[in-house]
Amino acid sequence: MLLPAMGTAAVAGSAASLRTSYPALQIAFLVGICGGSPSIQTAFLGDVVISDGVLQYRLGRQYPGGFVMKGMSEGNVHAPNKEIRGLIAYFKTEAGIRELEDGSAHHLKVLQDESVRRNYKTSYQYPGFVEDKLFESAYSHKHRDLSLCKLCFRDADLCDVATQHPCSELGCDESKLVPRAQLGSVEGQRLAQAKARGPAIFIGRVASGDTVMKSGEHRDKIAKEHSIVAFEMEGAGLWDEIPTVVIKGICDYSDSHKNKLWQPYAAATAASVTKAVIQRYSLNDDIETALIPLGKCPDFMS
């Protein structure tokens, strides 16, 4: 099932319709792309996050002095049911995560080869470690010649024009990049080879909301307070209706330096991991499942 729009409200409506059509539905897989949290220092673009809980981070109270998010003790975290907990528990073991990574690497290779055979516009190839850039949390994506843009002159405002251009065009200062394994190093070369083969997989709590997270500072604050591994826009809406596993490929770092370069590859890695998860998930004869792909997952992965 392809969702009609982003956001928890749009997903909730689709989930209710799905529940009506398939009353015996027991589990759904919500698949697509997300923004990563640098709190996982070993996570890079193209890696995949699997949820073991969903936090609705825009749920709370608006006071005159600002917005206060609803606390976990107030029911703001959606916890998985027994069946999903059992599935996730296996993937948290060394054998389980290795099985998942090997299976997803195989499915990703099949997907990439098939996209070439079918002459798709997108080949879902790994963009390269050199294109994986994480800027310091407080360093914003904006016009560097502030005399050309009144919005970018005021740090508190986000310029829609600037968001349509990559960092290379705006001249974002790469001295503001967070130091990580460099491509020229032995460690960096090994990492690039591993990422080209297939994604690393992380399991943890996902933050879900109707707004796109584009602030590195807000990202870090929420991630630290609530142990968040990724930010996305649909999970909370679906989880209220159907027991759900959220599986998302990391296409950016949930900050203002977003671009679409990594989206096809991240969607492909998420689809590949989902197929590996489904192969492990055992069904009873009277249980139906739904796979709900988001983003740009190719049709031959369904």
List the helices and strands and how they pair.
Elements: H1 8-21, E1 25-36, E2 48-56, E3 60-63, E4 66-69, E5 77-78, H2 82-91, H3 94-117, H4 150-153, H5 160-163, H6 167-170, H7 186-197, E6 201-208, H8 216-226, E7 228-232, H9 235-239, E8 244-252, H10 263-280, E9 288-293
Parallel strand pairs: 1-8, 1-9, 2-6, 6-7
Antiparallel strand pairs: 1-7, 2-5, 2-8, 3-4
Describe the structure.
This protein has 302 residues and is α/β, with parallel strands linked by helices. It has 2 domains: 8-68 and 77-134 and 181-301, Rossmann fold (3-Layer(aba) Sandwich); 136-177, no CATH class. The protein is 35% helix and 20% strand. It contains 10 helices and 9 strands. It has helices spanning 8-21, 82-91, 94-117, 150-153, 160-163, 167-170, 186-197, 216-226, 235-239, 263-280, and strands at 25-36, 48-56, 60-63, 66-69, 77-78, 201-208, 228-232, 244-252, 288-293. The strands form 2 sheets. The chain has a 5-stranded mixed β-barrel with strand order 1-7-6-2-8, surrounded by 5 helices. A two-stranded antiparallel ribbon has the order 3-4. Helix 3 crosses helix 10. The longest helix is centred in the middle third of the chain and has 24 residues, at 94-117. The chain is globular and about 60 Å long. The chain starts with 7 loop residues before the first helix and ends in a 9-residue tail after the last strand.
